[in-house]
Amino acid sequence: MQNKIKSIEKLKKIALKEKKQGKKIILCHGTFDLLHIGHIKHFKEAKSLGDKLFVTITSDKFVNKGPQRPAFNEKHRLESIASLSFVDYVALSDQKTSIEVIKNLKPNIYCKGPDYKNHKKDITGEIINEIKEVKKNGGKIHYTNDLTFSSSKLINSYGKNQSFNQKKIINNVKKKYNFSEIIKLIEKFKKIKVLVIGEVIIDQYVFCEAMGKSGKEPMLALKDIRSEQYLGGSGAICRHLSEFCNKISLLTMVGEKGEFVNYIRKNLSKNVNFKYIKKKKSPTIIKKRFLDYINYNKVLGVYSINDDPLVDSDEKKFNKLLKKEISNHDLIIISDYGHGMISNKSAKIISKSSKYLALNAQINAANIGHHSMRNYKNMDCVIVNEGELRHEMRDKNNQIEVLMKKFSLQQKVQNLVVTRGVEGALLYNKKKFIECGAFAETAVDKIGAGDAMLSIISLFFKCGLTRELSLLAGSLAAAQSARTIGNKEAVSKEKIFKSLEHLLK
Predict the structure, then answer these.
(1) How far apart are alpha carbons 447 and 369 in whole angstroms?
(2) Same domain for 195 and 146
(3) One domain for residues 124 and 197
(4) Closest of 400, 404, 354 to residue 376, by C-alpha
(5) Strand order from edge to edge, sheet including 298-304
(6) CB–CB of 152/66 below 8 Å?
(7) Is 177 within the bounds of a domain?
(8) Residue 495: strand, helix, or coil
(9) Within this chain, do residues 370 and 294 fall inside the same structural domain, yes or no?
(10) 173 within a domain of the structure (yes/no)
(11) CA–CA separation, 465 and 248 (whole Å)
(12) What pLDDT digit, counting tens, does each position of 462-484 carry?
């Protein structure tokens, strides 16, 4: 069995040798998570078409079938397929798509299951590219006639990868929508004009190796391994929205010298209209974090920041822009980090003038005890973590549900979402609570997960989609974010689609 498992490079050499001998090479590619009778019939039919059957599988890191997938890791999937007598060789592909595999192996026939015949149902669009690459290399495409089983449906039905409240919310969504309807509804998001207001932040990560305590003073010595930099704060929200909406505007502030303006503009999509004011006697906000390079534990944070409020002239300039921009947009998303950009007066303008208002007002190390969400009222959607809400309400003992009801009533909030780490998120809307467990079982980095949820869930709420579907989509977006460092990757529409597609089977 182990002799069948090869690298792509070795498989390339084998394919070339076999073809020189006049042998016909058949290729099957996929995830093959939870090997079932449908896969077996697929492989058997494929083998009947030629002399040698090669099967390649997608590596774990590129499996795009929703949260908590694959159910079986790449090692187990390789071994399962290699155990089949009619499979000649199996290899792991460390690529997002099968295009490179096809280029390397140049199969005579490339086999896909019958569910790929209708190319319109392939939301990734990759099957078209695969067919082109096969034909380019002189091969043919063949759709097998095997029974269609879904690994996702089997795992969802019989597996234990979903919590009780996750299954409950998924079942509620399935009663209301089918997947194709959800796709059509999400495509309507393109028409929504979104205005994002809040501080833009440059997130810098320095990955270090701990060298130990200094010999001369009580100081931890760190060895600089590498550094990375991402666009955070309100800039990250714009990136999350960019695949969903055609017209996005960003209203923010930068430092007095305009540092990082080009960097910000370069890292925003072309559909984002970037407007800013320069804050006097201030830098563009930089949050530098020092991490252990192996396990990504944060050791130290160093901020370049001035939390002073805007001077009168800058506040007037900002509020003038605010009034002008708000009236031209359907959805207003506030990412208020409490770093002096949005004054009480500005918050009142936002609360009074917004057609639909979504808010994340964060408490962090730089503003704790000096920042409040109470400056805003009449909000349609608020995202806050449990610690922030307890701090806001000055209550660490009461049940979180009690505090949510109280805050919603006081601030006139329509949809209040409280995030609770590994416990997931809790939504309060019109006297009803809905819970959804976290889809990211292990978080690489929690920073940015709330912004990702806010970006997506506010679109769903704005378009009148159900509470259950909105919370599910927002939770999937947060899980996407938590799997990467900081704001390294924006929320992918394709991944949201694929996650929903497989969860709803």
Answers:
(1) 20
(2) no
(3) no
(4) 354
(5) 220-233, 200-213, 286-292, 298-304
(6) yes
(7) no
(8) helix
(9) yes
(10) no
(11) 21
(12) 999 999 999 999 999 998 888 88
Please tell me whether residues 331 and 388 are part of one structural domain. yes
Give the DSSP letter string of 148-205.
Answer: ---HHHHHHHH-S-S-HHHHHHHHHHHHH--HHHHHHHHHGGGG-EEEEEE-EEEEEE
Q: Name the DSSP class of 246.
A: S
pLDDT at 371 over 80: no
Q: Based on the domain organization, do 246 and 359 belong to the same domain?
A: yes
* Residue 337 identity: Y
In a domain, 82, yes or no: yes
501 pLDDT higher than 90: no
Beta-bridge partner residues of 142: 111
464: containing domain: 183-503
Question: What is the tally of structural domains in the chain?
Answer: 2
Residue 230 falls inside a structural domain: yes
Task: Name which of 46, 108, 116, 105 is nearest 81 in CA terms.
Answer: 46
User: What does the pLDDT look like over 121-176, one tens digit per residue?
Assistant: 666 667 788 888 888 888 999 988 866 655 555 555 545 556 778 888 999 999 99
Which of these, 310, 193, 313, 329, lies nearest to 252 by C-alpha position?
310
Strand partners, 251: 197, 275
Which CATH number fits the domain that encloses residue 212? 3.40.1190.20
The helix/strand/coil state of 72 is coil
One domain, residues 378 and 453: yes
Distance CA 223, CA 207 (A): 8
Which pLDDT belongs to residue 158?
46
Q: For the chain, report the end-to-end CA distance as a whole number of angstroms.
A: 33
Sequence-separated contacts (24+) of 278-281 with Cβ below 8 Å: 278/253, 278/254, 278/314, 279/253, 279/254, 279/255, 279/306, 279/310, 279/314, 279/340, 279/341, 280/256, 280/311, 280/314, 281/256, 281/306, 281/308
How many helices and strands in the chain, by DSSP H and E? 17, 19
Q: Do residue 188 and residue 115 come from a single domain?
A: no
Q: In this structure, what CATH number is given to the domain that contains residue 63?
A: 3.40.50.620
Residues 139 and 202 in one domain: no
Q: Partners of 112 in the beta sheet?
A: 143
